[in-house]
Amino acid sequence: MVKTRKTTSNTTPKAISFLALFYLILMAFVYGAYIWIEQYRLDQSQYWLSSSQLSQEDVIPIQLVGTWSTTTEVIFYALFGCAFLLGVYRSWRLGSTLKSFLIWNTVLIAAIGIAGYIVSQFSTLPIGNLLQPLLLPASVLTVLFLYQLWVSMRSSRNRTVRGKLE
Hints:
- The chain is mainly α and 166 residues long.
- The longest helix has 39 residues.
- It is elongated, with a radius of gyration of 23 Å.
- The two termini are 43 Å apart.
- The N terminus is likely disordered.
């Protein structure tokens, strides 16, 4: 008798939930760094505006802080993009929907948006600067939600048509 081994996916539900939790914490950390850099940039700009004349040496730190801000925003987008690609790959490989990706990221974007609003109330940072990193992920989630809704409606319509034919 030959024993056959059942093939299973390499990722267990525990590994997936750990990965999702790690992703959420990492995204929150990157967003926190973005807030810190934006606040530092605003503080520095007030200092630079108060000085009567900027020298060439002052321009370098101004550009550097702008680069830091842009870099953290790009890292935020890259993390979201990697999670999106992993979610699409898993759904394609397992034949499932992207429902868990939608739920995790909707909660994340909502929590970060609320945190951004709260920070804007207690600091001089404008709400637009705080919500800027959320625009791309929120847009992708909206399109993904509409796609999932369309697929769901299409599959339920196909089941109804098949039921009437039988």
